[in-house]
Amino acid sequence: MLTGKKGLIIGLANENSIAFGCAKILKQQGAELILTHRSEKSYKQARFLANELSADLYQCDVTNQENIKQLFPYIKKKWQTLDFVIHSLAFAKPRELQGRLVDTSSQAFLQAMDISCHSFLRIAQQAESLMPNGGSLISMSYLGAQKVMKNYNMMGPIKAALEASIKYLAVELAEKNIRVYGISPGLMPTRAATGIKNLDQLLAATTRKSPMQRIINQEEVGALASFLVSDFASGMTGQTLFVDGGYNLIN
């Protein structure tokens, strides 16, 4: 389905990350991939996972604008053009995430907004010039962007900003045939979720309440991403789509 497609996946952390789940499925479908990791500290694990998928690996800290600006010339030199980008990262200081929204410091809020939302805009800006024939941009959201979710606190407004940004980008880039999507996975035990207070209890509650009575996995997120970056989704843009076993229907 994706033979000949070339894509960038940002946010590889470990084998339980959504980025890796997406990468596995996209690779199975024939895509060529470049994966990014954040720092030298994460290199060894990221290198192992990239090798498993025969994918290129590039270090990119999205808080460093120079890192982003250097990444895209590397992609252009390797491929000339780019078909898709999957932005799969978020950050909030655990102490701030576990406290009340009203008590959030401006520094922590702005840092979380910069990494979790505005970095997607910076990536989109750079990717645009490498998509002369169109392409797809995807970022990861969560139900807490649309409904108040227990213990999600400060990240709710930030993911809401991300989902709004997806809509605006979709309209702005439509004339260039660049499609923009959000994927909203259900709660799962990823590295990004470890900062959520009482995660184990929330996972158990999600299983009980979900119509499908289970936690979804990273590969199921990857399956949706695979469809969205394929030509089969050519008539869609601007939506945030749920992969949560139907949990959003009953919460």
TrEMBL record:
InterPro entries: Enoyl-ACP_Rdtase_NADH, NAD(P)-bd_dom_sf, SDR_fam. GO terms for biological process: fatty acid biosynthetic process. Keywords: Fatty acid biosynthesis, Fatty acid metabolism, Lipid biosynthesis, Lipid metabolism, NAD, Oxidoreductase. It catalyses: a 2,3-saturated acyl-[ACP] + NAD(+) = a (2E)-enoyl-[ACP] + NADH + H(+). Its EC number is 1.3.1.9. Transmembrane segments: none annotated. It comes from the Bacteria. It is an enzyme of class 1 (oxidoreductase). The keyword Nucleotidyltransferase does not apply. SUPFAM superfamilies: NAD(P)-binding Rossmann-fold domains. GO terms for molecular function: enoyl-[acyl-carrier-protein] reductase (NADH) activity. Pathway: Lipid metabolism; fatty acid biosynthesis. Belongs to the short-chain dehydrogenases/reductases (SDR) family. FabI subfamily. This is Enoyl-[acyl-carrier-protein] reductase [NADH].
